[in-house]
Amino acid sequence: MNRRLNLDAHLLGILKHNGSRRAFAARLDMTIKRAKVTSGRVARSLGVPEREVTLWRAGVTVPKSTDCARLSELLDVDVVWLCAGQA
């Protein structure tokens, strides 16, 4: 639970900093490409509209912490690395 609260706080911070959003978007985009999946498949797996995944990949918005956790599982990457760029 505490880790989720920290992740929520971090994600809110990302929204305030354009550079952080772009860095998150770059990690997400690279990971999706390496996994050889489409935005549509990611969206269906998470139960969100494909447009939402497209906005995440473009750095316009960031996902909720629950979606980040599910993204990390789907794409087989560490959630902290995906959201914060840290191992």
Q: What does this protein structure show overall?
A:
The chain is an all-alpha fold and 87 residues long. The chain has a single domain, classed as Orthogonal Bundle (434 Repressor (Amino-terminal Domain)), CATH 1.10.260. It has helices at residues 2-16, 18-35, 39-46, 50-58, 65-75, 79-84. The mean pLDDT is 86.
Which secondary structure elements does this structure contain, and how are they paired or packed?
Layout: H1 2-16, H2 18-35, H3 39-46, H4 50-58, H5 65-75, H6 79-84
Question: Brief description of this entry?
Answer:
The chain is 77% helix and 0% strand. The chain contains six helices and no strands.
* Distance N to C terminus: 19 Å
Identify the quaternary structure here: single chain
**H and E string:** HHHHHH
Classification by helices and strands: mainly alpha
Q: Radius of gyration from the CA trace?
A: 12 Å
Kindly report the CATH topology. 434 Repressor (Amino-terminal Domain)
Number of helices: 6
Protein name: XRE family transcriptional regulator
InterPro entries: Cro/C1-type_HTH (IPR001387), Lambda_DNA-bd_dom_sf (IPR010982)
Domain HTH cro/C1-type: 42-82
Organism: Paraburkholderia podalyriae
Task: Give keywords.
87 residues; mainly alpha; 434 Repressor (Amino-terminal Domain); 6 helices; 77% helix; Cro/C1-type_HTH; Lambda_DNA-bd_dom_sf; XRE family transcriptional regulator
